[in-house]
Amino acid sequence: MVIVMLGPPGAGKGTQCQLLAERLLLPHLATGNLLREAIARKTPLGNLAKPYIDRGELVPDETMVSLVRERFLEPDAKPGAILDGFPRTVEQARALNQMLFELGRKIDRVLYLRIPVEVVLDRIAGRYTCPCCGATYNLTSSPPRMAGRCDRCNGVLVQRSDDRRDVAQRRLEVYEAQTAPVVTFYREQGVLVEIDGAQAVERVLEDELEALGSSALMPDPESTEATWQHR
Ligand code: AMP
């Protein structure tokens, strides 16, 4: 099963993708996380991406497409993946369709988290992530159990440098100009489901699971036991 999560920065894509990944046993493929890891390790990809991320601009399409292609070829992505932060341009969306076609797969659903821009700027300001495991928290909507510490691995939570208000503002402008057309692209393809992203985290998740429907969890016909297989 291939799921794409769309929505502006601060809509809750990371949190929702993590929850869905746990439910559906699919890898959470977050391009922003892959780039931040590359920056931390000072790889050529990281050195290329850093100035773009620092300015709140998009990393060039060719770089992103080959990064996602490589990630899709890893064994854990065989049953599918939940894409977070990709595609961010219509060009990337076209390349993704082509890539999946070549792999004999297709996008099952695009979940679009709709949320007013005024709300997202405040959300971004309250956002913290764990540099050790990538978990994301929000001081208002999904705070960690212990202040400043990750629930999963007890790592010390940090704020992303591009969550600063001026950079966040630029990211929202870039979203409107370059990523909002991707919503239209998928709507026209009939795979898009709109979800009210302003609701509580659990309600958003419920709506997503409903949108994914019974295709998310199918009984495994080859198994003699009553186990479930994820597709
Ligand atoms: P995110 O963690 O998804 O908010 O991404 C953080 C930053 O990484 C973005 O502001 C971009 O600079 C860069 N980035 C992540 N995904 C992409 C993508 N698909 N295309 C271009 N740039 C990206």
Can you offer a commentary on this structure?
The protein is an alpha/beta fold. It has a five-stranded parallel beta sheet, with helices on both faces. A hairpin with an 8-residue loop joins strand 8 and strand 9. Helix 1 packs across helix 8, helix 2 crosses helix 3 and helix 6 crosses helix 7. The longest helix has 25 residues. The C terminus is likely disordered. Bound molecules: adenosine monophosphate.
**Low-confidence region ranges:** 218-231
Instruction: Specify the biggest β-sheet.
Output: 5 strands, parallel
Helices and strands: which structural class?
Answer: alpha/beta
Shape: globular
Order of helices and strands: EHEHHHEHEHEEHEHEE
Q: What's the end-to-end separation, in Å? A: 5 Å
Extended strand count: 9
User: C-alpha Rg, in Å?
Assistant: 17 Å
Number of helices: 8
Q: How large is the share of residues in beta strands?
A: 15-25%
- Give the fraction of residues assigned to helices: 40-55%
Write down the overall mean pLDDT: 90
Largest sheet, order of strands side by side? Answer: 2-3-1-4-7
Small-molecule components bound: adenosine monophosphate
Task: Summarize the SSE layout with pairings.
Elements: E1 2-6, H1 13-24, E2 28-30, H2 31-40, H3 44-55, H4 61-72, E3 81-84, H5 90-102, E4 109-114, H6 117-125, E5 127-129, E6 136-138, H7 165-189, E7 192-196, H8 201-212, E8 217-219, E9 228-230
Parallel strand pairs: 1-3, 1-4, 2-3, 4-7
Antiparallel strand pairs: 5-6, 8-9
Helix pairs in contact: 1-8, 2-3, 4-5, 6-7
